[in-house]
Design brief:
The structure is a homodimer. Chain A is α+β, with helices and mostly antiparallel strands. The first copy, chain A, has two domains: 55 residues, Arc Repressor Mutant, subunit A, CATH 1.10.10.10; 79 residues, Alpha-Beta Plaits. In chain A, 35% of the residues lie in helices and 31% in strands. A four-stranded antiparallel β-sheet of chain A has the order 3-4-2-5, with helices on one face. A two-stranded antiparallel ribbon of chain A has the order 6-7. Chain A is elongated. At the A-B interface, helix 1, strand 1, helix 4, strand 3 and strand 4 of A face helix 1, strand 1, helix 4, strand 3 and strand 4 of B. Strand 3 of chain A pairs antiparallel with strand 5 of chain B, so a sheet runs across the interface. Chain A binds a DNA duplex through helix 2 and helix 3.
Chain lengths: 159, 159
DNA sequence: ATTTTATTTAGATTTAATCTAATTTATTTT
DNA sequence: AAAATAAATTAGATTAAATCTAAATAAAAT
């Protein structure tokens, strides 16, 4: 039984609306989806139980909090078998907020957030020190031009 | 007047707790921060007014919704002056959920989410068709090993 | 020291979340 | 196709939280 079959347009519409603003009351979601608020509750509990909706988080403007630099890091390992241990070490560095195993030249692809260039320098130093990391390439984010949630479609168009 | 000076550890602690679970009732946040729930409200309104907290969104397991492939794209432009118009065109492609202006070799660095390899193929085709794009490099995400919110620190340690 | 200003709080009111039982809708069986 | 069963949805009641207001406290300025 395919999980995706258990998901209908009501579910997707609810996810879509809450993705725009996770604090929207279920009563309001209910009106927009043309069901009762009870149904919204039931559907959301189902989505949470299925692990589809994992949590709700804030969308924060980090630069306004003094975290002015975010950057992507392409990390080259000495041996790709070191992946797991390097990831464990990167978890110890709190500025690393994402890390991925990707196809392409990099062994690990990561995202970091820092306060300023000095902070960035320190973080890069700490990352270079991690056993098994050969070298890194840094892509500093100068502008975020698109940042939006996924949009769902069915045969009839946007949900 | 520096905005960051208006933010104290109470604010950061509130942001930190709500970042873990944006649906946590303010009454519960209040207990953990040792202030009244009214104060949590006031602080959150301040943070929203200052544009620091922009919104709350869901953390969704896209693979369970049938979106099995996410990928980063390094995009090379014919001329870097085409940045703005290319971004406008990328906004029309709903699978593009992030796009950045970054240092490094790429003119644009983007993230896309697709259902399967067929869908990825279509999306890549559509992106290649965008006027001004020279070529792209695709980094397909095979595993997300770290995904967490930023952690705040002051002189005394983690907030 | 006194006034002014800002922040926090307790308590009241409004609003929403959650639960339950009943109804409706859909599915299966005969 | 009709009856029986199962599943989903709803209205309404209860519980809990958000929001507002006015008073109290604390901080800053004169």
């Amino acid at each position: 039984m395919d999980k995706i079959l258990d998901i209908d347009n009501v579910d997707l519409k609810i996810i879509s609306l809450l993705n725009d603003d996770a604090k929207t009351p279920y009563t309001e979601i209910a009106k927009k989806v043309f069901v009762s608020s009870g149904t919204v509750h039931v559907r959301m509990r189902k989505l949470e139980d299925m692990g589809i909706v994992k949590s709700a988080t804030l969308n924060i403007d980090f630069s306004k909090l003094g975290y002015d630099i975010s950057a992507f890091l392409g990390i080259y390992l000495e041996k790709s078998s070191l992946y797991d241990t390097v990831i464990e070490n990167l978890k110890q560095i709190s500025e690393v907020i994402n890390a991925y195993y990707t196809t392409g030249n990099y062994s690990i692809f990561a995202k970091i957030i820092c306060k300023d260039t000095n902070h960035l320098r320190t973080v890069l130093d700490n990352i270079q020190k991690v056993e098994g990391i050969d070298r890194t390439e840094t892509l500093i984010v100068l502008e975020e031009s698109i940042n939006r949630p996924i949009q769902f479609f069915d045969k009839t168009g946007k949900i």
